Amino acid sequence: MMIAKLAAPLIVSRIGEMISSFLFLSFVGHALPSAQGHASFAWAFVSFATVTGIGFFSTLMIDVAGHRNRAEGDLGILLQAALKLAVILGAAIVLASCAYLLLMATPSEGMSTPRGKTLLLMSLSTPAIYLQIVIFNYLNALQKPKYELLFVWGFNLALLIATATCNLGELSITIEQFVTVFVALRWLLVVAALGLVRRTLARSAAADNDHPSAWQGYRSFIHRGIPLALCFGAESFLYFAFSLIASAQGDVALAGYQAALHFLSVIYMISIGVGNATAITVAPAALAGEMHVVRKRLLEGLAWGGLLLTPCLLVCMYLPSYVADLYTSDRATAVLIT
Asked: How far apart are CA 219 and CA 7, in angstroms?
């Protein structure tokens, strides 16, 4: 039951992340249906970058979970390296988006168009997303998942208030303005989340020379994180490639595909929640060579994963039209989602 106890808050947090993107896509699909294609393409790109980042920074969670008894300064220096890399890699994504829009985009997708502006604004959230991944990989590995729960659902509440204000006030808003609000809210809460690890960062800054250097932390991520980033990114790129194909067939095709993919991503988040909980509980036993405990935890993780994913399959088989209506008021798009 150890995995179930830890998996529950992690799954609720992961689903909370999907609720935030659902609120984003659903608001656009109902309030700004003409911009649904723009929002879908931007979400596809950021989703690809996010999954790649999850792979790259997953080593932090394993290191912290497996070495919770190490000196706090050691873990703090590792955290510092991860936070700096999160900002650097996130900035690289933003620069790549700018380069694409300036040098490679078609006239209908350039930086001066609604689609180009939406993509550029959404890319600005990438450094914040990477910081969020690092912060909560660290805290979850210390078996403190309540902080991610507060963050994710606090963000959802803030976004829900923003969308409700627009709907109830019948405010006229453009896709660019809405994306700006979405990104600003994420950055605001990420800056607040950094306060959770401020003491750790302060202690690690005062660490003596016996602690590993920051360069060792960078090297650890580069050597072990890049293969995982390529693994996660390759799988995610398949779906991003499908987004490019759907985009070539028109905004309705793109919006329909992205909404269906988003719902299936909820299932992916359940898998990640169970997988992370399994990894956190397996790491100490694996390092201690207690293989009978490792096998027990792995089987427990498989059992919980199967139990939780079965209802998702039933919804996909028997209630697809109801799911589609949650995402859009456009009937052509809803038919494709179904």
From this structure: 30
